Amino acid sequence: MPGNLTVLNKHTVSTKQQRIAVLAQRSPEFALFSLAHYIDLPWLEEAYRRTRKGGSAGIDDVTGKQYAENLHENLQNLLKRLKSGTYKAPPVKRKHIPKGTSGETRPIGIPTFEDKIVQRAVVMLLEPIYEHDFYEGSYGFRPKRSAHQALAEVRKATMEVAGGWVLEVDIRKFFDTLDHKHLQEFVQRRVRDGVIRRLIGKWLNAGVMEGDDLSFSETGSPQGGVISPLLANIYLHYVLDEWFEQTVKPLMRGKCRLIRFADDCAPGHVCVG
């Protein structure tokens, strides 16, 4: 995309995101019904710009470079399918990569390049809502937050809990076992737009292609998907962060906090006599 068009799209998208954020802030206890109309051609162009171009191709074997050869036509066609509700989320290609040095592997789902653009477009819609809702202790895969910041907070909290205790917790196979029904119920608390909710449902039920085998599951969100980290944060916001803040903290004496990076967390507590 030409440079001046890129700058214009960034400004347009940023303005729309600010509007969404204001709506979310004004109505923290209510769901938003109208979001999909924000997705237009400039929005998709910005989603394309933010999508990594050099990643592995999905099941259609179309690379980012190949998609860009007819970018304008491809995005216009994509927008028509999104607006008409005919867009179909393709299955993700599954690969296994080493996990640490134990010999265990981690399954990674690779969406098609076009699906990555759509996922990025929806993430751009939902982030302004949930950035208002998420707790300060949540660091994983959020704008302007990093693993280094999470570690710095863990260190700071550790220094504060002298005489107390710190737990390190990793939710085993969280992405593989995420419950679709519960996730959809959690999303509905803040998002009632039918187009967006149907897209999320399509991704959750798109299936996984491993070799020539296509499989479907009622649980899990493939690691590697653009939207998967946000969906994981939404799920953990309600089942872990909110529970900790509203149920655990009031029962504890002294300082108590939860620091979480995706499905890794470190709750700490210092007792006060």
> Tally the helices: what do you get?
10
Average predicted local confidence, pLDDT: 89
Poorly predicted runs of 5 or more residues: none
Class per helix and strand makeup? alpha+beta
Task: Please state the CA-atom Rg, rounded to the nearest Å.
Answer: 20 Å
Q: Kindly, what is the distance between the CA atoms of the first and last residues, rounded to a whole number of angstroms?
A: 62 Å
How many individual β-strands?
8
For the biggest sheet, the summary is: 4 strands, mixed
Keyword list:
273 residues; alpha+beta; four-stranded mixed sheet; globular
Report on this model:
- The chain contains ten helices and eight strands.
- The chain is α+β, with helices and mostly antiparallel strands and 273 residues long.
- A hairpin with a 2-residue loop joins β5 and β6.
- The longest helix is centred in the N-terminal third of the chain and has 24 residues.
- It starts with a helix and ends with a strand.
Report a brief summary of the structure:
With 273 residues, the chain is an alpha+beta fold. The protein is built from ten helices and eight strands. Helix 1 packs across helix 2 (41-50), helix 1 (3-26) packs parallel to helix 5 and helix 2 crosses helix 5.
